[in-house]
Amino acid sequence: MFISKAKTSFSSFIGIILCLFGGGNAAFWFLGIILALTGEIDTDGSAVDEFFLSLTICAISVLILLWGIRKIRLINKAKMLDNIFRGDKDGEMPVKSASTLMAMSEDEFVKLFKKLVAKRYIVNASLNNENGAVSIVLNGGKTKNVEYVVVQCNGCGASNTIRKGFVGKCSFCNSDIKGA
Question: What angle do CA 73, 78, 81 make, to 5 degrees?
């Protein structure tokens, strides 16, 4: 596993709460603005002051909504990376390959990867710059002295070669396998 289930679950919950609160609040205040402008709601004070107050609260609510959406999108990218990493066979993936799979430039990918690691959404992975070739090393492994083992899949019984100590996916049935 390359994703922190606890961290992403909690952040996803917070993102959903932010979206519900921000979206509901924005809709309520936007409706109030529309009703005040059409004269459906009587205003006690200055209509201009109430309009700008409602507009300000509506804008803050929209920002909260956008914050929640951004948080959920970031978690979804972490989940995509987890799926990509779990399919890796040797514990090392070139940034070029990962960025292609994520449909982004290498610079954007490195920035995203660093952000996901800093927020601890992605764990057991790090960037490695060896001889100018930037790659992602999975499970904190090293690129030198790599040892592989052949393991049998518990799902289908097929033999798979995997890096020792790593978790991956069966090539045949996509079940989780561990290189013990």
Answer: 125
Structure tokens that stand for 30 in this block: 């936007």
Note whether 93 and 135 are within 8 A (CB): yes
Dihedral in degrees, nearest 10, Cα atoms 85, 91, 97, 102: 10
Residue matched to tokens 């393991």: 151
How is residue 55 written in tokens?
A: 């507009």
- The per-residue pLDDT for range 44-86, each reduced to its tens digit, is 666 677 778 888 999 999 999 999 999 999 999 999 998 888 8
Beta-sheet pairing, 125-130 with 133-138: antiparallel
User: Beta strand pairing status for 159-163 and 148-152?
Assistant: antiparallel
